[in-house]
Design goal:
This protein has two domains: 73 residues, Orthogonal Bundle (Arc Repressor Mutant, subunit A), CATH 1.10.10.10; 38 residues. The N and C termini lie far apart (56 Å). The protein has five helices and three strands. By secondary structure, the chain is α+β, with helices and mostly antiparallel strands.
Length: 116
């Protein structure tokens, strides 16, 4: 349970940044070197390495060094746990809004009955 929470924390933290989401999108098209990602996002190599490290810690990206080139690819675990968490909370919000809609409907009906 704690492990799962830590995984979600790392994933959501990693995905909270637009550049890192862009990296995920780019790697969805195909593997890329850190230097090509840095060029694509117009940032320094050091800056891109930091973004990739955050994604690696979250298990979203895997890197492999061959010679002088470090290549990035999407991690195998995907975002299933994150999607499940989001879906569970979407259902929770939906249920609460349905109750709120019922309460508002009752109040509006009472107001109509009083004004008649």
């Amino acid at each position: 349970m704690v492990q799962q929470a830590l995984l979600l924390d790392r994933s959501f933290a990693a995905l909270s940044d637009a550049t890192r989401r862009g990296i995920i999108d780019q790697l969805g098209v195909g593997d890329a070197s850190i230097s090509s990602l840095a060029d694509k996002f117009q940032m320094t190599l050091t800056g891109m390495k930091k973004h990739v490290q955050v994604l690696e810690r979250a298990g979203l990206v895997v890197t492999r060094k061959v010679g002088r080139v470090r290549t990035c690819r999407l991690g195998k675990r995907g975002l299933e746990a994150e999607a499940d968490w989001i879906e569970a909370h979407r259902k929770l919000f939906e249920a609460r809004f349905a109750v709120l809609d019922d309460i508002i409907g009752e109040l509006e009906q009472e107001r109509k009955d009083e004004s008649s």
